[in-house]
Amino acid sequence: MLKTAEDIVFENNLDDKEILAVNFSNMSKERYLVGKEAEDDEILATAESFALKAVVVARTSDYVNASIHRVVFLQNLAGILICSSKSREAEKVCREALTLAQKTFPTGHPFIAQVMHNLASTIHCLAISYKDEALLSEAESLAFNALVIFSAQEKSGYISEWLNLACQRYRAILLGQGLSPEAIRAKLASLGLQD
Predict the structure, then answer these.
(1) What are the start-end ranges of the H helices in 39-159?
(2) What is the pTM of this model?
(3) Residues 56 and 73: beta-carbon distance below 8 Å
(4) Residue 151 burial by CB count (10 A; 0-12/13-18/19+): exposed, middle or buried?
(5) How far is it, in rounded angstroms, from Cα 180 to Cα 161?
(6) What is the pLDDT of residues 46-96, one digit of tens each?
């Protein structure tokens, strides 16, 4: 039988909110992977429940890593919501994660760019679904800002994988806006990037 995070905490007499939050997050990730692979909505709902519990514990706690965990756990929850076809809910969660990331990390930090990239991706999907030009424009702005941060970090030899993902998303958004391949190359070149 699958143990819940509450069972684990009770069995181990854990009184630490950080451990509880991390356990909820770990249970959520495990359920998410199983549910996604099995395409099982019930398992994904369990993953969502655990992810939400992790967020709640981190929100109501003041342990040392709580601020960082809030951002990470919100990102995890957003991913589960997207997988569960709840893109509007995921957008709200991603927006909250970005606000918290901007308060938690210094300007230009790569984790802010990761959260920004994830929000841009979510909004881009919504813009396509709803044929919403305002959302597409917002996704482009977020993707560009994430790309600027990743590009600056990459010049110092850091996170080329995220830079590649951000370039791909930015290209897709610009194509969706009707830009030509030449115009896209020029925009990327303005950041010192090649297409």
Answers:
(1) 41-59, 66-83, 87-104, 110-130, 133-155
(2) 0.84
(3) no
(4) middle
(5) 25
(6) 999 999 999 998 888 888 888 999 999 999 999 999 989 999 999 999 999
